[in-house]
Amino acid sequence: MGNSNGSTVDDLQAVEMHLWYKKFMTECPSGQLTLHEFKQFFGLRGLDPEANAYIEQMFRTFDMNKDGYIDFMEYVAALSLVMRGKMEHKLRWYFKLYDVDGNGCIDRYELLNIIKAIRAINGNENQDASAEDFTNRVFDRIDINGDGELSLEEFVAGARTDNDFMEVMMKSLDLSHIVAMIHSRRHSV
After folding, report:
1. Cα–Cα distance between 55 and 58 in angstroms, integer?
2. Cβ distance 125 to 116 under 8 Å?
3. What are the DSSP E strand ranges found in 13-159?
4. Would you give the end-to-end CA distance of the chain in angstroms?
5. Which DSSP helix (H) or strand (E) runs through 120?
6. What is the chain's mean pLDDT, rounded?
7. Is the pTM of this model over 0.70?
8. Tens of pLDDT along 69-102?
9. 101 to each of 56, 61, 87, 98, 151, how far by Cα in Å?
10. What region, left, alpha or beta, does residue 2 occupy, with left being phi > 0 and alpha being psi -120 to 50 degrees?
């Protein structure tokens, strides 16, 4: 009667969801994570202005209903997308994250600030190219119509064909260390 593997997967997902809920409610008893709590939760303090702006944009992108808080469902949706989502969905989400002004295109300034922020957060000083050079190289490779802005289509197609750009994007939202921290964090009462 039915696929026994399906129920096993559902059971595992239910157990994992329960663990995520317990961790979230332990860290955030109100059930709503503010920007300040978001930064504290992930140990993101003392960031330079570019990195801080990027984290604030990430928070706004996770805050799907734009109420100024990340609730449990938004938290789960974000983690699920980052950890299990299909590449197409991830690329669309990255585009939304990188399109800081929300105009439907990513310009050089937006991409440059994201690259600087990623490097500041990840501590990547040993780079072959400066953030400016890397941004210019990305635009040279994937701005197909040469208008100085990346449309969603250019962004997705370019990310799929430019390994260097794809690697930077994957690092920009590498939550593996955050997930590990959530699972291993000891709670003092």
Report:
1. 5
2. no
3. 32-33, 70-71, 106-107, 149-150
4. 46
5. helix 108-122
6. 78
7. no
8. 998 888 888 777 767 778 888 888 888 888 888 8
9. 13, 12, 23, 9, 13
10. left
